[in-house]
Specification:
Blueprint (H helix, E strand, L loop, with lengths): L1 E3 L2 H13 L4 E6 L5 H13 L2 E6 L19 H11 L3 E3 L3 H4 L17 H5 L3 H16 L3 E5 L3 H13 L5 E5 L19 H6 L2 H14 L4 H13 L5 E9 L13 E9 L2 E9 L1
Parallel strand pairs: 1-4, 2-3, 2-5, 3-4, 5-6
Antiparallel strand pairs: 7-8, 8-9
Helix pairs in contact: 6-7, 9-10
The structure holds adenosine monophosphate.
Length: 279
């Protein structure tokens, strides 16, 4: 596996692939890789001839007071995992390769970025859309792979790709979970043992609420009960627990298909997010 930090050698490596007619898959990440990220790599390996994984902890998608400085960084371990999985290129750019001196451009995907995490983290999805647009232009993949764990992010990227004429495939990959149901996340590393045990209340409450809604129960009451359950189980703040249309992410007061339940909640100093289809 080639580890590349500058655009010129990246372009050289990619030109070689293109000449050979290689189908290039891109897996963008912020590192601290776990089995969720590696599932994206696996799917990309199945669907493409060469996989480029990127690691860039993107300052633009962190708000003030968020965990940019604390975000886990472990590139050597990440590189070993990616190499063992058969990744061809690790694109680990220095910051100036993403934001050159004088950088002034912002990609903002209106509407779909506004609710859910966009409301709780103003500017977050502009940061995501901007860096992903840059990565798409730098790598020009044939397909790019994103986790459903960050479902709103996936929806923002799909919208951006349609609007800005990125024609490659955008592939969504189902969420990988620990056996107790907690979605894998680099931020789970922040949890103490006690918080990790309590955190299972989030997927539990989400699953039970989704089941009750699908069975025809009253949405507002079910969501209120699920919040009570989480707040009694170690979570101290719920940013949102909402039923939304699975495509446009419009808020739903009543259950209509296709629907998805979205949750973000704080336990200790960690903010966890998750989502699930309601059907
Ligand atoms: P991150 O490094 O957190 O920015 O995540 C990089 C990519 O991995 C994103 O497309 C995430 O949606 C995806 N991802 C993170 N956690 C999971 C998971 N548990 N299952 C599937 N995909 C995931």
């Amino acid at each position: 596996m080639q580890i590349v930090r500058q655009l010129d050698p990246l372009r050289d490596a990619l030109a070689g692939f293109r000449k050979a007619g290689t189908k290039i898959g891109l897996v963008p990440t912020m590192g601290a890789l776990h089995a969720g990220h590696m599932r994206l790599v696996e799917v990309a390996m199945e669907q493409c001839d060469a996989v480029v994984a990127s690691i860039f902890v993107n300052p633009a998608q962190f708000g003030e007071g968020e965990d940019l400085d604390a975000y886990p960084r472990q590139e050597a371990a990440d590189a070993a995992l990616l190499e063992a999985a058969g990744v061809a290129v690790l694109w680990a750019p220095t910051a100036d390769q993403i934001y050159p001196s004088g950088y002034a451009t912002n990609v903002s995907v209106r509407g779909i970025s506004d609710g859910l995490c966009g409301a709780a983290r103003p500017g977050h999805f502009d940061g995501v859309a901007t860096v992903v647009a840059k990565l798409f232009n730098q790598i020009r993949p044939d397909a790019a792979f994103f986790g459903e764990k960050d479902y709103q992010q996936l929806a923002v990227i799909r919208r951006m790709a349609r609007d800005l004429d990125f024609t490659h495939d955008i592939i969504g990959v189902p969420t990988v979970r620990d056996p107790d149901g907690l979605a894998l996340s680099s931020r789970n590393a922040y949890l103490t043992a006690e918080q990790r045990a309590d955190a299972v209340a989030l997927p539990e409450a989400m699953r039970e609420a989704a089941k009750a809604i699908a069975a025809g129960g009253r949405v507002t009451e079910i969501l209120a009960e699920a919040k009570v359950h989480m707040l009694a189980s170690g979570f101290h703040k719920i940013d949102y627990l909402e039923l939304r249309d699975a495509n446009m992410l419009a808020l739903l007061d009543d259950f209509t298909q296709p629907a998805r339940l979205f949750v973000a909640a704080h336990i200790g100093r960690t903010r966890l997010i998750d989502n699930i289809a309601v059907s």
